[in-house]
Structure formats: structure tokens, C-alpha cells
Design goal:
alpha/beta; Rossmann fold; seven-stranded parallel beta sheet; six-stranded parallel beta sheet; 13 strands
Length: about 425
């Protein structure tokens, strides 16, 4: 009799098989790219003075995560190498004395550099270390992962954090999820250190300095992610039509990737709904100001929901997303991701059935004190050491480096 495999297990096994096949293909590509890079640049990956501490950022959008840490190293006069794969990363313009910021190339060129990097500790937000392109360098002693959003670490693509030595977290649920993954996969336990969220700390301090904004009428921010499950793909112009029926001012801020991957959709929507005194399309590089001047956000599964809700202390409306966990680490766990458990505390769900009543949903969110209590609970669950993230991360890295040095010292012979 043939063995039965349930659909969930079958999907997971298929995903693993595709991942293994992809890894084989990428391995050959990686070898070829590395060979070309070594021939063109000589001693690839061996940064000046073999730093004790290095940071890798695969995109400039993560500078808000790393800048507080770089500033803390600079303040303490501790040398640090910041490596970026973005040629226009804001870090490259910072007048640091002790922190060296370097563009190491884009795509495969950056990974070829990293794969032979010389450093004691590497800190990064980039998942999939030692899974596809990015391999552990034999010249690096310790890899540390740092989250770039106030949400689940299990929502990375499968095996996203398995091969890091340590994970920095911001809530107890992170450790519970990581330990559950390690147990079900039978892999060694990683070091876990709760350090908070540096980028939320910075945003909060900036808000305190610049102050909040009170609008009349209120401003509704439509801030979708991108892809087939995102708001604009799912509802199209209908959601804009319904929003324009309300008395509120509407600001639409699509995900930057939409203008690349969904260009036809963006072009058609922006042509059909041009800017007016009621409608604004926002494409600012820095999202702080548009978040500050908005009173409520409508989003789907974008991490900006937590920035808006937890820092600016404002309600949100989230869409009914059919989340397919099969490609992600979350599919290995029985428990629903924290992100989806917490959303009902922060606002109301938008569905195709209640889209026609979106004005009523907005009114309830703006006036119901229940969501204020929910935001307070969410902060407690996911934002440890509020205002102290950079100090906590830096202290951890310094203490870890001291441990590595002590372990490497030969025992004295008496």
C-alpha cells in the first residue's frame, strides 16, 4: 500500500527539494563569480587590518537599523567596518573617524567578497547565510543576525537563520520560535540575546523631537506591500474609489518594488487616479514624514504597520491576507505567527465583504480606545529595552568579542 503524505508535509518536502536543487545551481554560479572576482581584485574579502567587528548590509534601506550601532561604536571610539551592497547607501556619506563605510559591490560581487572575509564578528540583517549565495567564511569567527522589523523571524524563507551563531531578538516569542525550530530540525542551539529594536528607537526619538501632527479632516495612509496578495493587486482601483467616498484626505504610498515588479499596475492606477486636493501619491525615500502626518494606516503584511502603530501610536486597518507559509520557516511550527496574532489588537480587518463600509471601519479605529490598549500590549511583547537598542547591541558584540579572544588564548603552562 502506498504511504500517504498529507498536503502540508508534501508542500514542505517539495519546497526543500526545490531549495536543494537551487542550492546546487547557485553553488556553481557562486564558484564562477568568486573566481572572476578573485582574478579581478586579488585578495578578495581581506579588509584592511582584519577588523574585530564588521557589519554587512545588503541594501541601503537597512541603514536605519545599523546607523544607531555605527554611531555607538563611533562614540566609544571602537573601530568597525560597515560593508554595503548599495552604492548610494547613506552610510557612505557619514563623516566617521572610527567606523569605515565601504561599498563592496552589488549582488554576486558582494557575496564573493563576503565568502572570504577576514573578521572576528559579522553582524547582519541578511537571512540565508550558508544556504545559497552567502557562505560562511573560514576567516570569520562568529556570525550574528539582527532583525530589521518588529515581527516574526520565522517569516524568512526556509532555513533563513539556521546557520548564524547568534540571534539578537526583541521579544520573548522570538526565542520560543527559534528554540522550536531547532528542536523540530534537530540542529544545535544558537545563542540568543534580547537587545531591542534600534530603528524603532531612532524613529521614536525623532518623533519626540519633531512632535506629532493633528489633522482635520484626518489623513488616511494606504501603504501596501507588493505582490499578488497585496492590497493594490487584490482590490485594484476599487479600494481607492471607496476611500474617495469618505470625507478624509487619502495618501497612497506603494511599496518601492511595485514600481519595478508591478509597473503596469502602478502606471494604470496613477493615470486613473491623478493627484488632487483629496488624493496624494507619496514616493519619499524617507517614510518618517508621511507616517507622522497620517492618522490611520491601511496595509496588508508590510512591516511598516508596526512602525506606524508602535512608534506613532496610531491605529491601522489590515487586509485579510491568505498567507501561504509553505516557503517559510513558519511552516515548520504549529503556532500561528505572532504578526497575525497581534494584528486584531491593533486595528480592524478589511475584507472584500466589508470594503464598501471602509469609512465605518476608519471611524471605529480612530475613536475606539481598545486599540490603544492593544498597541501597549504589542510594545511589551516585541520592543524590549526601548530607547537602548544600540547600547544593548554594542555591549553584546564587545562582550562576545572578549569571550572569543579569551577562548582563543593558549593555556598558560605553570
Amino acid at each position: 500500500m502506498l504511504a500517504y503524505i498529507d498536503p502540508g508535509t508534501g508542500s514542505m518536502l517539495f519546497t526543500i527539494l526545490i531549495g536543494l536543487l537551487s542550492a546546487g545551481v547557485y553553488k556553481f554560479k557562486d564558484i564562477a563569480v568568486k573566481a572572476r572576482f578573485l582574478m579581478s581584485s586579488g585578495n578578495a574579502g581581506k579588509l584592511e587590518d582584519n577588523p574585530d567587528y564588521a557589519i554587512f548590509s545588503d541594501h541601503k534601506r537597512y541603514w536605519n537599523v545599523f546607523e544607531p550601532v555605527c554611531d555607538e561604536f563611533e562614540k566609544r571610539e571602537i573601530p568597525l567596518i560597515y560593508m554595503t551592497a548599495s552604492p548610494d547607501d547613506p552610510a557612505l556619506q557619514k563623516p566617521y573617524k572610527y567606523v569605515k563605510c565601504e561599498f563592496i559591490g552589488e549582488g554576486n560581487k558582494a557575496f564573493a567578497r563576503l565568502n572570504t572575509l577576514h573578521a572576528d564578528i559579522v553582524l547582519s540583517t541578511t537571512p540565508s547565510l550558508d544556504v545559497l549565495y552567502w557562505k560562511r567564511s573560514k576567516y570569520v569567527k562568529y556570525y550574528v543576525h539582527m532583525p530589521h522589523a518588529a515581527s516574526d523571524l520565522t517569516m524568512y524563507r526556509m532555513f533563513g537563520i539556521d546557520f548564524y551563531d547568534a540571534i539578537l531578538t526583541s521579544g520573548d516569542y522570538h526565542e520560543e520560535q527559534i528554540r522550536a525550530l531547532e528542536k523540530v530540525r534537530g540542529i544545535p542551539e544558537k545563542e540568543i540575546e534580547k537587545t531591542g529594536l534600534t530603528f524603532l528607537d531612532t524613529m521614536k526619538a525623532r518623533l519626540e523631537a519633531e512632535g506629532s501632527v493633528k489633522n482635520e479632516p484626518p489623513v488616511v495612509l494606504l501603504a501596501p506591500s507588493w505582490g499578488e496578495s497585496a492590497i493594490l493587486s487584490k482590490f485594484g482601483g476599487k479600494i481607492i474609489d471607496e476611500l474617495l467616498k469618505t470625507p478624509y484626505k487619502i495618501v497612497i504610498r506603494p511599496h518601492p518594488q511595485s514600481f519595478t515588479s508591478e509597473k503596469e499596475l502602478m502606471d494604470s492606477l496613477m493615470a486613473k487616479y491623478p493627484e488632487s486636493d483629496r488624493l496624494e501619491w507619496n514616493r519619499d525615500n524617507d517614510n518618517f514624514e508621511v507616517l507622522r502626518r497620517s492618522d490611520i494606516m491601511i496595509s496588508d503584511f508590510s512591516g511598516v504597520m508596526f512602525d506606524f502603530s508602535l512608534v506613532f501610536d496610531k491605529p491601522l486597518i489590515y487586509t485579510d491576507v491568505q498567507y501561504d507559509a509553505s516557503p517559510y520557516d513558519a511552516c515548520w511550527l504549529e503556532e500561528e505567527p505572532w504578526t497575525f496574532r497581534v494584528l486584531p489588537k491593533l486595528g480592524l480587518k478589511l475584507t472584500e465583504d466589508n470594503l464598501d463600509n471602509i469609512g465605518t471601519l476608519i471611524d471605529k479605529c480612530l475613536n475606539d480606545s481598545e486599540f490603544e490598549q492593544g498597541r501597549n500590549e504589542a510594545r511589551e511583547e516585541t520592543w524590549a529595552y526601548m530607547g537602548e537598542g544600540a547600547r544593548c547591541v554594542t555591549d553584546y558584540l564587545i562582550n562576545k568579542h572578549a569571550q572569543l579572544q579569551s577562548a582563543a588564548e593558549p593555556e598558560k603552562v605553570e
